[in-house]
């Protein structure tokens, strides 16, 4: 699978899980994983998932606009850059967001998120 | 210097150079550097600077809105995530952009850009 297709598959899996089964994101992070969410720094899968599941909205839908990827300096690592729209239940307008992931391979042949930075793009 | 201050100093230096002396960006990239600019993949400092200096606007001004950073998996490497506005000369409205950099240390105690991904955030 070429890197762009891998990145796109990861991103689709990530946001589908976020939108339908947020606690399921736990398997995509590890103890050393870092999330910076709107400037707040959080480390480790349990803390990251606690943050993501406690966001002040229960239902949401991410629409992906662009996915870019590059190989990272880490062996078989991948940098993924996403832009898109986040629609919250009950809100009229979608929010624009940008997010980057640094993915590292797992021994099982999959990927986990080492670095994750999320920002809303306010108009 | 703490990582957040370093990241902010790099970002200010980068965009000041971009806005005032675009060819000067050459020293911030190396042969292995990668740029993905609006989906177009470019590799190596000379090609990257050729792209950036041939963009269809001569004067511009970047205003930084947010700078986030995390340590990368590479030794003393740093991931930097920027959002901001790009004002082109003669245009009424600024364009919103997001950009990520993966910075690696140089032997001289400075940083260069290994990975660079840029996207405009269209409204």
TrEMBL record, chains A, B:
One of its GO terms (cellular component) is cytoplasm. Transmembrane segments: none annotated. InterPro entries: NTF2, NTF2-like_dom_sf, NTF2_dom, Nuclear_transport_factor_2_euk. Gene3D superfamilies: 3.10.450.50. One of its GO terms (biological process) is protein import into nucleus. It is found in: Cytoplasm; Nucleus; Nucleus envelope. Signal peptide: none annotated. Keywords: Cytoplasm, Nucleus, Protein transport, Transport. Its main location: cytoplasm. Residues 6-120 form the NTF2 domain. It comes from the Eukaryota. Pfam families: NTF2 (PF02136). Facilitates protein transport into the nucleus. Interacts with various nucleoporins and with Ran-GDP. Could be part of a multicomponent system of cytosolic factors that assemble at the pore complex during nuclear import. Interacts with RAN1. This is Nuclear transport factor 2A.
């Amino acid at each position: 699978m070429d890197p762009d297709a891998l990145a796109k598959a990861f991103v689709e899996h990530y946001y589908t899980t976020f939108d339908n089964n947020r606690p399921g994101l736990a398997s995509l992070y590890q103890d050393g994983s870092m999330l910076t969410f709107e400037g707040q720094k959080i480390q480790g899968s349990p803390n990251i998932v606690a943050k993501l599941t406690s966001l002040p909205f229960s239902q949401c839908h991410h629409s992906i606009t662009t996915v870019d990827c590059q190989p990272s300096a880490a062996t078989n690592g991948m940098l993924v850059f996403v832009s898109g729209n986040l629609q919250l239940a009950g809100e009229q307008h979608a929010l624009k967001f940008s997010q980057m992931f640094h993915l590292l391979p797992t021994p099982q042949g999959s990927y986990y998120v080492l670095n994750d930075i999320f920002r809303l793009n306010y108009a």
